[in-house]
Design brief:
porphyrin biosynthesis; Uroporphyrinogen_deCOase; Uroporphyrinogen decarboxylase; cytoplasm; 15 helices; uroporphyrinogen decarboxylase activity; 7-stranded parallel beta sheet; TIM Barrel; 14 strands; alpha/beta; 366 residues
Length: 366
């Protein structure tokens, strides 16, 4: 990998330039969860690995699945194949993935003693497989000294991680963590402080290993009440952003924050220090641009379920969203959440092609 002072040659840096609100020839596109179960080649690799966790913990296989969508579609970025729950797993909570049930923790954080035992993990010792994967992916993306597209690293937000840590698994009502929030807020703040410091160390390790942009997934921040969101989610996102490495290999390392259900707080998120905001499908990108001005780039907002429609409808929806944003700099096309496992791959391909073709026409004034 290049030294800090060297600039890695990028064949396509459109995604990074868009995140920095620089003019681009077209709107770059990548898809949240673009390496996943909707691709038959991914399912074959996962079967070979034996389980999702074994796949994520094998740098060679994680590299393989990270590159699979790029072999199918002309995407403008790769995203590290991993899972947000690797961080609490590294804290010793006993992560398990059960078929049909999703992730769970054998040792959830429920008592004051549980909270007191939490500590920032040694990233090299516990999550070295992730940074090894980052290095391998960068190497695989580079041919003849030129890298095809940038690599995105990521982590869950402190509050989203805490939801799984306290609930012990996914939840429909978040009753356990909200009970802690209102009855023992000091416990939750301590969990969030540890999580934030762990995420800072984790994302910085990814950046040092070669991630060229990072994203904070605040998947469950939107379940919080106004006021609670600022205190228990946003404040810790701000803490992370302030602690990140922001330049590497002679370039800015952009940071994207995405709070699902966070449309109410776009202005506050835009002031958090991030370079870009992810929008879910409830947020109009034109209104979002008016609200945040030119403080940040915007990413996302297409309903993932659009991809179940016929290709001509998908293309029309893509054009409509691009028209809503306009040809101004600072737009990354993406979904408003992760792509569904039931999405026909050719429908994703139709979306990517239409975004590239139509946005080029926009830039050309046609």
């Amino acid at each position: 990998m290049p030294s800090d002072s060297a600039v890695q040659a990028l064949a396509n840096d459109t995604f990074l330039r868009a995140l920095m609100r620089e003019p681009t020839d077209y709107t770059p596109v990548w898809l949240m969860r673009q390496a996943g179960r909707y691709l038959p080649e991914y399912n074959a690799t996962r079967a070979r690995a034996g389980s999702f966790l074994k796949l994520a913990q094998n740098p060679a296989l994680a590299t393989e699945v990270t590159l699979q969508p790029l072999a199918r579609f002309p995407l403008d970025a790769a995203i590290l194949f991993s899972d947000i729950l690797t961080v609490p797993d590294a804290m010793g909570l006993g992560l398990e993935f059960t078929a049909g049930e999703g992730p769970s923790f054998a040792r959830p954080v429920r008592t004051e003693a549980d909270v007191a035992r939490l500590a920032v993990p040694d990233i090299d010792a516990t999550l070295g497989y992730v940074t090894d994967a980052v290095r391998e992916i960068r190497k695989a993306l580079t041919v003849g000294g030129v890298q095809r597209v940038p690599l995105i690293g990521f982590s869950g937000s402190p509050f989203t991680l805490a939801c799984y840590m306290v609930e012990g698994r996914g939840s429909s009502d978040f009753r356990t963590i909200k009970t802690m929030l209102y009855s023992q807020p000091e416990w939750l703040h301590q969990i969030l402080k540890v999580n934030a410091d762990a995420v800072i160390a984790y994302l910085n390790a990814q950046i040092e290993a070669g991630a060229q942009a990072v994203m904070i997934f605040d998947t469950w921040g939107g379940v919080l009440a106004d006021g609670a969101y600022q205190a228990f989610s946003l404040a810790y996102i701000e803490r992370i952003v302030a602690g990140l490495i922001r330049e590497r290999e002679g370039r800015r390392v952009p940071c994207i924050a995405f709070t699902k259900g966070g449309g109410l707080w776009l202005e506050a998120l835009a002031a958090s220090g991030v370079d870009a905001l992810g929008l879910d499908w409830t947020v109009d990108p034109a209104a979002a641009r008016q609200r945040v001005g030119d403080k940040v780039a915007l990413q996302g907002s297409l309903d993932p379920n659009v991809l179940f429609a016929p290709p001509e409808t998908i293309r029309a929806q893509a054009r409509a969203l691009l028209d809503r944003y306009g040809a101004a700099p600072g737009h990354v096309f993406n979904l408003g959440h992760g792509i569904s496992q039931f999405t026909p791959p050719e429908h994703a391909g139709a979306l990517v092609t239409e975004v590239h073709e139509y946005s080029r026409q926009q830039r050309a004034g046609r």
